Amino acid sequence: MPKKINFDRRNFIKNNFFYGLGLGLGVPVFYKHLVKKEIPLLKDIEGISFFNLPGKHKDMVLLNDRPINAEAPPHLLNDDVTPANKFFVRNNGIPPRKEKIDVKNWTLKIEGESIINEKRYTLESLKTKFKTKTLQLTLECGGNGRSEFNPPAKGNQWSLGAVACANWTGVRLRDVLMDAGIKDDAVYIGYYGEDTHLSGDPNKDPISRGVPIEKALQEESLIAWAMNGEDIPLLNGYPLRLVFGGWPASCSGKWLSKIVVRNKVHDGKKMGGQAYRIPCKPVAPGTKLEDKDMCIIESMPVKSILTFPKTGAIISIEKELEIKGHAWAGELKVIALDYSIDFGSSWQACKLTEPVNKFAWQHFNGKIKFPGKGYFEVWVRAKDEMGKMQPMVLPGWNPKGYLNNACHRIALKVV
Ligand SMILES: Nc1nc2c(c(=O)[nH]1)N[C@H]1C(S)=C(S)[C@@H](COP(=O)(O)O)O[C@H]1N2
Ligand SMILES: [Mo]
Q: Residue 246: which CATH number?
């Protein structure tokens, strides 16, 4: 049995791994054990399919192929700075095709009722006109952890890996907005990207969210063209995107072509209704809520992820086990990270690094000597600078399944 398979569609056809191609549905899939999810081939008419997730690691877990949504299993996030191929993908629509992106003529429009002078910038003029800035910024999808909700929440069933922290290079959003001039009545910004609605209707936006003007004007809010020193991967917003560290990643518009400065809360797609909103007051699980009782999610809650060892590892009793991972707390700093090997009865401190800059995740490591052989769980729990800790079980049920920051735990066998 071959170990490595090139999931390139042309190869598939060439090697006859699929037959009945073109009929679309119900074709037998060879090497099925290597395929995480069987998908009808006709779904890949946009040129991207599971077998050809451009630039992504083969162990990324695909949750949905139309739109494409993929997360990293926790052990894949072990790097201090997340490599581009392990950075999760959350799409609401269909990304622009790479060959249709004309980088030279890519323009960003700055408009909206609270802008003094409407402006247009090419990518090149952004790069030359404004000061370039590189920051490590954590992006986490508001729905990360959704799969644990009960009653369940509709949407991508993210487990733990819709979070990542990369080096982002670009210009400050504030410098660009200041260049255009902001009126005194500005309260919010909104973004528009070049992805298309799933229906194919060019008049419909897949998503158009934003942030309050105060967040937009922060030093760390970027319009970025590079991730880890290279072009942003297509699926993560090539050639230009917003990056608002610490806030739900839905605020960070990809394939960015327009920013509007608004004199009211931006009313783009997925700003209203119940999308990216939680009950303003806590509710019992399963409660039906009216839109007026839902509030927009802002800074993300304190959370951590254990990235080494991989859950299921077999550990020798002879050696101390070194555990590793990351912790973050939206706009706040994490001040402590503890682990427990007795189901939360007692906790020990890990070493925790300082963030390299505001809104970058922090790293922890600790050494564990197990008291005997057998089954163990390692739990980790972070505390933010306001004294808030991660809950051990699912916090605050909400209808759309946002903000699950329950402790991450892994299972180990000590032999
Ligand atoms: N244009 C555009 N921007 C977007 C989205 C999108 O579908 N289209 N998805 C948003 C959501 S919900 C998230 S969580 C992040 C995901 O960023 P990533 O795919 O780079 O991880 O992008 C945000 N920006
Ligand atoms: Mo998201």
A: 3.90.420.10
Range of the structural domain that residue 204 is part of: 93-149+162-281
CB 362 within 8 A of CB 324: no
Cα 15 to middle of ligand 1, angstroms: 35
Q: Which of 66, 57, 133 has the alpha carbon at shortest distance from 95?
A: 66
Report, as an integer, the average pLDDT of 1-8: 37
User: Which residue puts its alpha carbon closest to atom 14 of ligand 1?
Assistant: 141
Residue 89 in contact with ligand 1 by CB distance below 6 A: yes
Domain count, the chain: 1
Q: What is the per-residue pLDDT for 36?
A: 44
d(CA 214, CA 218): 7
90 lines ligand 1 (CB under 6 A): yes
Task: Note the pLDDT of residue 52.
Answer: 58
Q: Is the CB of 78 under 6 A from ligand 1?
A: no
Say which range, 21-25, 76-80, 111-115, 270-274, has the weakest mean pLDDT: 21-25
Tell me if 255 is assigned to some domain: yes
CA–CA distance, 291 with 286 (Å, rounded to integer)? 15
| Cα 207 to averaged position of ligand 1 atoms, centre (Å) | 8
Count the neighbouring beta carbons within 10 Å of the beta carbon of residue 143: 25
- Which residues, chain by chain, have CB under 5 Å from ion ligand 2? 90, 141, 250
At 5 the pLDDT is 35
Query: Which residue in 378, 253, 252 sits closest to 313, CA to CA?
Result: 378
